[in-house]
Amino acid sequence: xxxxxxxxxxxxxxxxxxxxxxxxxxxxxxxxxxxxxxxxxxxxxxxxxxxxxxxxxxxxxxxxxxxxxxxxxxxxxxxxxxxxxxxxxxxxxxxxxxxxxxxxxxxxxxxxxxxxxxxxxxxxxxxxxxxxxxxxxxxxxxxxxxxxxxxxxxxxxxxxxxxxxxxxx
Length: 169
Known about the structure:
Layout: E1 2-5, H1 8-21, H2 31-39, H3 48-56, E2 65-68, H4 69-74, H5 76-87, H6 93-102, H7 105-110, H8 112-116, H9 120-123, H10 138-151, H11 156-160, H12 163-166
Parallel strand pairs: 1-2
Helix pairs in contact: 5-6
Protein name: Sulfotransferase
EC number: 2.8.2.-
GO molecular function: sulfotransferase activity
């Protein structure tokens, strides 16, 4: 099992834009309205922190590889190599480069109309790291930090998220 996790602040930011772009999901007039719903477990998929907490019990399982979105953005070649090795898939250097290129956010966004039709622009917005800094107020930032500490602080998945690096202002 490949478990891909992401900074919870960027998860919230991304889902805010996604929700407002998908007519089948609840939309929110303001970021503040969305933030309250996100923090009070009123999301269609449930609470992201509870999701991470449930997966944490499998963090040491040899059949589970956890990787962060941030790691893949920082070093996509190493990420693909590690994923291929985990699944026992040998890759030539050319195959590795092809996978890295085709799985880049830019490539997927460019091809999104072919792969996802009319929803391509909704699924592929920015693909960056730390976009949360454009939406979060200082109070929201503190509330998210507190929720993080309560749910996954001190856990293996919590450490994997490199919270101090990617999530702190």
